[in-house]
Amino acid sequence: MDKILLYHGSDTEVEFPEIRKTKYTKDFSWGFYCTNDYEQAYKWADRKSKKGIVNVYSYTPNDELKVLEFDKMTNEWLDFIAKCRAGFVHDYDIVEGPMADDTIWNFVNDFLARNISRKVFWDYAEFKHPTHQISFHSLKALDCLKFERSEQINE
Fold first, then answer.
1. For 36-40, 58-62, 93-97, 122-126, which range has the lowest pLDDT when averaged over its residues?
2. Which domain holds residue 12?
């Protein structure tokens, strides 16, 4: 299989990715998050620090791992995010799919808080275009990543 370039925006160089349990879970629960979209990683890095870092990895998929993929925003995607944000811990090694931008995330929060219905969520999200995220949830999954380099932004 071909290697795929992935990016992780941070405030530091991350040569050895880790899965850290934090106060709040993310879209796909606790994991190490990357994207195939350099601009998205750049935004993540810029939010973290005035001198953010975009870390670059080559990713080699492993067919032996348990992977969940969402090709687009669907009810299953929304329900999975809702469960993960509520603390659900799944047993997937890797989860890949759309990442809601800030606007869509506000709609997701409204849906989770039951301030809007599922139908209203989809009405609001219809013309929004999510970006990509891939999260690594096990040591075997992290073994699929090889650190290539880091790039400091806003020097």
1. 122-126
2. 4-152
